From TrEMBL:
Molecular function via GO: uroporphyrinogen decarboxylase activity
Assigned GO CC terms: cytosol
UniProt site positions, description: Transition state stabilizer: 73
Lineage: Bacteria, Pseudomonadati, Campylobacterota, Epsilonproteobacteria, Campylobacterales
Domain Uroporphyrinogen decarboxylase (URO-D): 18-27, 142-158
Source organism (scientific name): Sulfurimonas gotlandica (strain DSM 19862 / JCM 16533 / GD1)
Catalytic activity: uroporphyrinogen III + 4 H(+) = coproporphyrinogen III + 4 CO2
Pathway: Porphyrin-containing compound metabolism; protoporphyrin-IX biosynthesis; coproporphyrinogen-III from 5-aminolevulinate: step 4/4
First-tier enzyme category under EC: lyase
Name of the protein described by the UniProt record: Uroporphyrinogen decarboxylase
Annotated EC: 4.1.1.37
Amino acid sequence: MSKIFVDACFGKQTPYTPVWMMRQAGRYLPEYMAVRAEAGNFLNLCHDPKKACEVTLQPIDIVGVDAAILFSDILVIPDEMGMDLEFIKGFGPKFNDPIKTEADIDRLIGGDEAASKLTYVFDTIKLIKEDLDKRGGEIALIGFTGAPWTLATYMIEGEGTKTYNLCKKMMYSNPALLHKILAKVTEVVKLYMEKQIQAGIDVVQIFDSWAAAIEPSKYDEFSWKYMVEIADYLKGKYPHIPIIMFPKGIPAFLDKVYGNFEVFGVDWSTPMALAKEKLGDKYILQGNMEPCRLYSKEETTACVEAIQDIMGTKRHIFNLGHGILPDVPVENAIHFVKECQRVSKK
């Protein structure tokens, strides 16, 4: 059965432009909050395949999106590499043993040994695929990973940061150490994503949430080239699996984007017309409504129509320019999806 989302990733003709939302399985849905409460905490939910499957599928039934995205977290990778991760209520993720020295890197588990520990993720994928197949197999399942740079920021800083001073201090004063971290993470990510594909995902998305923290002249060296290495590895073995690259906040260096992947995710700070001008001939574009527009149905419709005017009905996937926020009314999310499908229906 042909999947509209996968067809769109390869630039094929589709009956309308498909739509999904980053963080669509999440806190804005009361049904998600109920499952999370049952799980006890966020990490428990990630580790429970049945519950993770349930929340992955909720946006399909409730909001009507055209693709499911695996419910998990990017930080399960360093967690299974041996770092001490906890999620603190009202604070977020925290590593109690951040990386400071070469010895800290050397103690981490790498390669296939680390990737193979993520069995709960692969079990979740299998359960989701079983359910989607029962529904007719038309809905695609997106698997994902954080980019090595984004993962490394948490591993070095120990928590979320606004200044990135510890990672950037390492970038400028000890670049070899940072590259060693990035290379070790990249090897785990390659094998982790390969195992996600083998478990049944249809599409890969690589998130570089903290791309904007790196100055343009250093971005390729410390982030993009590692993302391209992951994409090259996966495309070499699984050419039928489309890859989405989503680096957040890099409008200043769209000219420097290259690599073997199909879809470029456009964040909300990048004008869609600029992305189309610079990259529209090379890649399918995904995005890019400002997530806060979801607070207003009128502003949502205006933005969806404006994006449609720019992109037309080809080489585009509707999405937000970052994740949906927790206090967005569910009816507004449904309105966004319906409007995307309405304006692009052929």
